[in-house]
Every structure is written in structure tokens, then in C-alpha cells.
Design a protein that fits this description.
By secondary structure, this protein is mostly beta strands. It has 3 helices and 18 strands.
Length: 300
């Protein structure tokens, strides 16, 4: 199984790989890591019995003889690259119970945050992608054999552009926002106005609509579903270059809404008016923004 297939197979689901947890101690962060070692690298689940709390995977790495041949232990240093497939391990002091935390890096990272695939973060959550700061990260376990890691995208997308769904406004005007938290207003859709829905981020719908009086387009988030029963889940992976990339709300480049950091990875939802529609995380948060960029980011 490839890494991206592993993520797809568990995203939004709970997993208790060994049945070792009690009714109040199931579906832990270590379960998803054991499943990763088993399904991607072929490590038998039985050989990982009794592997303990999350912090032990780094601090006691040499004693984890079932998995240690497959990984290299690397201490965390500020500014280091967090690669797709890295097992990220937090210190025991991260939480009050002294268990720490553990997850699998997706390959998306910046100078202030990174994304990993976690379970039980926050407590009681299923497997999902989470954006973290570097606080209390102790180190990483990096796969030695990257044949099932490399050759994939940066894991920000599924590999194809979405087919946009028709969105139609109702009997009242609809505010358009620059982020999925629906806080910063950047526009307005008229009564009965049509748009195209390219994705859904949290409870907000990402729509693209005509920029009044021009042949250009504008993108943003709305709360109203507009008749969309299921927003498209597809996307391509966008990987920024060595310089910051300005993000605009519109393809006319009239309104700047943000920027992508050097080497930042995100979702790309299409090419419109010669520009690329991207969906990305605000650094250090779980808030997402969208807009148009000029640089292709490796999207074909």
C-alpha cells in the first residue's frame, strides 16, 4: 500500500489495530502509527505489542526492534524539512497525562507549522489531517525505504481537478468571505446569482463567480449551500517555489487576500483565466483561505 492510499483508507475513520485498548482507551494516536507500519512497510501488528505511549517511539526507539530497521531517528531542529511519511513524535510533556503524541507527516509544512495525519487529536477524534505548530515536537522517524513514499504528490490532493457543481443563490444576498471561518468579507452574491462550487472547507462552500463588469472571476467562501448536495472532493497538489506567492481574490488581481510561503504545499482546484485556484491553510491554524495565483506550482 502506498502512503497516499493509506491516508485515503483511514481518513475520517477510527482504528484500533491490536484490540489492546480498553473501552475507555481505544482508537489512540499510536494505533494509526502501528497501522502505518503494518500496511505500508509490512511490520506485523503482533510484533508491536506493548509499544506503550507515543513519546516512547522516539525516546526508546532503539528498543522498538520491530520498526527500528525501517526508520532513521532524527532530532527536531528549527527550520528542518518535515517530509511526507515521517513519523512525528511529541514530548511526553505535551499533555497532562504524559503520553505525548504521534502522527504521520503529509509533507505539507512551513516555517511555523506542518500537517500530519493523526488519531485522537484532539481527544476522541478519528483519523484526520491536522495542522500543528512545532511546540513540543521531540523528533521524527524517517522511512529508510521511500519507494512507497516518493513518486507521489505532496499529498495535498487526489491528482485531478474537480468538476465544479452548479451553485445558485436564494432570495437574499449572500456574503462572500476570504476564509472558511466566514469572518472577513470580500464580496457579495446577488439574489438568484449563479456560481460554481469547487470544494467545501469545514462548513463553508468555495465558489467562483463572475467579477462584475469584466470577463474575469472571483473566488471566496459562502455559508449557503446553493443547492449543492455534495461538494467536489478532488484536487491537484500545488507546491510553491522558493519565493512567496501572492494570492488574489480575483483573476484581475484587484484584491490581494494573502500569500503562500516559500515551498508551501496546498490544494489546486483548477486553472481559470490563466491563473491557478488554490485552497490553503493560514500558517499555524486550521483556517483555510482560497484565491488565485500566477505561479503554476508544478500543476500539470
Amino acid at each position: 500500500m502506498k502512503l497516499i492510499e493509506f491516508f485515503d483508507s483511514l481518513n475520517g475513520k477510527f482504528i484500533d489495530v491490536d484490540g489492546a485498548g480498553s473501552s475507555t482507551n481505544k482508537n489512540q494516536c499510536v494505533d494509526v502509527v502501528k497501522a502505518y507500519c503494518n500496511r505500508v512497510f509490512g511490520v506485523p501488528v503482533s510484533s508491536m505489542s506493548g509499544y506503550g505511549d507515543a513519546w516512547e517511539y522516539y525516546d526508546n526507539f532503539s528498543k522498538k526492534t520491530a520498526i527500528s530497521p525501517y526508520f532513521t531517528k532524527i532530532s527536531y531542529k528549527s527550520g528542518m524539512e518535515i517530509k511526507a511519511g515521517d513519523i512525528v513524535v511529541w514530548k511526553a510533556s505535551l499533555n497532562a497525562i504524559g503520553a505525548g503524541h504521534i502522527g504521520i507527516a503529509s509533507g505539507k509544512y512551513s516555517s511555523s507549522s506542518f500537517e500530519s495525519f493523526d488519531q485522537n487529536f484532539p481527544s476522541g477524534s478519528p483519523c484526520k489531517f491536522v495542522t500543528h505548530s512545532y511546540n513540543k515536537v521531540n523528533g521524527i522517524l524517517r522511512p529508510k525505504d521511500r519507494s512507497k513514499i516518493d513518486g507521489e504528490t505532496k499529498l495535498a490532493g487526489t491528482g485531478s481537478f474537480p468538476t465544479a457543481e452548479n451553485w445558485k443563490n436564494g432570495s437574499t444576498k449572500e456574503t462572500v468571505y476570504s476564509e472558511n471561518s466566514l469572518k472577513t468579507k470580500i464580496g457579495m452574491l446577488a439574489v438568484r446569482e449563479n456560481a460554481k462550487c469547487y470544494s467545501k472547507a469545514g462548513n463553508a462552500y468555495l465558489v467562483v463567480y463572475d467579477l462584475d463588469g469584466t470577463d474575469k472571476h472571483k473566488a471566496g467562501f459562502v455559508e449557503y449551500a446553493g443547492g449543492v448536495a455534495k461538494a467536489p472532493p478532488e484536487s491537484k497538489s500545488y507546491n510553491n517555489g522558493s519565493t512567496p506567492e501572492t494570492v488574489y481574490a480575483d483573476t484581475a488581481k484587484k484584491t490581494k487576500v494573502g500569500s503562500l510561503n516559500p515551498r508551501e504545499s496546498c490544494y489546486c482546484l483548477g486553472k481559470i483565466d490563466g491563473m491557478y485556484l488554490v485552497l490553503y491553510y493560514v500558517t499555524g491554524t486550521n483556517t483555510q483561505k482560497c484565491g488565485f495565483v500566477s505561479y503554476s506550482g508544478g500543476v500539470k
